[in-house]
Amino acid sequence: MQGPGTRDILLMLLCYGYVLALILVSDRLEEFLGISRKSSRKFLHAMIGNLPFVIPFFGWPLAPALVAAPFILVTFIASPYSPSPALREKLRSLSDLTEEGHSLGLVLYAISYTLLTVLFPTKPYIIAAGVLPMAYGDSAAALVGQRFGRRALVNGKTLEGTLAMFVASLITLGLSLAYFSALYPFTLSEKILPALATAVVVAVAEVLSPKGLDNIAVPLLGALTFLVASGGL
Questions:
Q1: Counting CB atoms within 10 angstroms of each CB, which of 10, 117, 197, 227 has the fewest?
Q2: DSSP state, residue 210
């Protein structure tokens, strides 16, 4: 297999810089804009979900996985389970955000994203079908559920939050497919039903997943549903 080219290396560095900048910005949102730590964490969660849009421009299939994989280690070191308190202290910006949610939530998020990039390195629209519902759908569910949730379901979830998860997932999937249809040989109309099926499945998965486990259940089930509903590879 041919190694990475100059463009691949530059894009990888750009992605690393993007994520690190997001971590730093998210850590300061409460101080400068009065945004809660939970909302700051969801901002980080959502913005990381934009990475699949860069994948079409990589020429080296391993590059997307190498963008995602290091953050498994980084987020684990920043978690309460870190084997090195000294390193965790150096990653305080990320560890403070991690504490706001499930202690291993960001680790599972990084794992699920890495798995999808390994399985579908040349089909970023499948990766997006898993990542975007977690990034934007789950963030919408948490924020809407907290503010407007009245009808309780299970695992502390609400009907209002679940509907927000469905709507946000469907909208972001539709927009992403419009983008990817300009780069890959399919039309948006061909993927509407798979996107709808994916939005339904991820909304149900988010409700049924115990706290934190949705970070891996939603991306993997979302990608699988989209793949199956599209007729496979």
A1: 10
A2: P
Per-residue CA distances from 172 to 13, 107, 157, 211 (Å): 26, 23, 21, 23
Structure token digits, residue 151: 């009808």
pLDDT tens for residues 141-182?
988 988 887 888 888 889 999 999 999 999 999 999 999 999
Contact present, 42 and 139 (Cβ < 8 Å):
yes
Record the tokens describing residue 43, joined without a space: 């901002």
Q: What is the pLDDT of residues 93-136, one digit of tens each?
A: 666 655 545 678 888 989 999 999 999 999 999 999 999 999 99
Helix (H, G, I), strand (E, B) or coil at 198: helix
Angle, in degrees to the nearest 10, between helices 138-148 and 192-208? 50
Cβ atoms within 10 Å of 11's Cβ, excluding its own = 21
Phi-psi region of 60 (alpha: psi -120 to 50; beta: other; left: phi over 0): beta
- Phi (first) and psi of residue 212, to 5 degrees: 95, -35
Number of helices (H), then strands (E), belonging to the chain: the values are 12, 0
The residues, any chain, with a CB within 8 Å of residue 90's CB and separated by 6 or more, are none
Instruction: Please check whether residue 169 is in contact with residue 196, taking contact to mean a CB–CB distance below 8 angstroms.
Output: no
3-class secondary structure, 158: strand
The SS3 call for residue 152 is strand
